[in-house]
């Protein structure tokens, strides 16, 4: 009745209904983190509280906790600089560097 989503299983509806509230029933037992789904809690535990780094770079000794971090790391092995300043010729491998560039070079 709040939105148009429909679910076959009642449990899926209950999980979805959390989207419409501020409730965060899943609490990390190690820190103050809380979230709306068990999958988000498991991801938090693996990234934040685990020493495991299952994603190994094939070109060097670096290993990463997440596939996303490995993807970012792989840019150091290429000439790719996918983040282009729209106001000058500056390019960067990382979006954060482009944001810093914009603040330093193109704001008054």
Automatic annotation (TrEMBL):
Gene Ontology biological-process entries: segmentation
A single GO molecular function term of this UniProt record = DNA binding
Q: What is its main location?
A: nucleus
Q: Which residues form the signal peptide?
A: none
The chain positions of domain C2H2-type read 1-25, 26-54, 55-82, 83-108
Instruction: Provide the Gene Ontology terms for cellular component.
Output: nucleus
Q: Which compartment or compartments is the protein found in?
A: Nucleus
Which Pfam family is an annotated match for this chain, by its short name? zf-C2H2
- Supply the alphabetized keyword list: Developmental protein, DNA-binding, Gap protein, Metal-binding, Nucleus, Repeat, Transcription, Transcription regulation, Zinc, Zinc-finger
Under the heading Gene3D superfamilies, the entry gives: Classic Zinc Finger
- What PROSITE patterns does the record point to? ZINC_FINGER_C2H2_1, ZINC_FINGER_C2H2_2
What does the protein in this record do? Gap class segmentation protein that controls development of head structures.
Q: Report the family membership.
A: Belongs to the hunchback C2H2-type zinc-finger protein family.
Quote the protein name from its UniProt record: Protein hunchback
Write down the species.
Cacopsylla melanoneura
């Amino acid at each position: 009745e709040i939105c148009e989503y429909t679910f076959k299983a009642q449990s899926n509806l209950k999980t979805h209904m959390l989207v419409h509230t501020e409730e965060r029933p899943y609490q990390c037992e190690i820190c103050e983190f809380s979230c709306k789904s068990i999958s988000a809690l498991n991801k938090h535990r693996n990234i934040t509280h685990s020493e495991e780094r299952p994603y190994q770079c094939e070109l060097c000794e670096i290993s990463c906790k997440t596939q996303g971090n490995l993807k970012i790391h792989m840019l150091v092995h290429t000439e790719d600089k996918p983040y282009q300043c729209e106001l000058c010729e500056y390019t960067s491998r990382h979006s954060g560097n482009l944001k810093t560039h914009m603040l330093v070079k193109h704001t008054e």
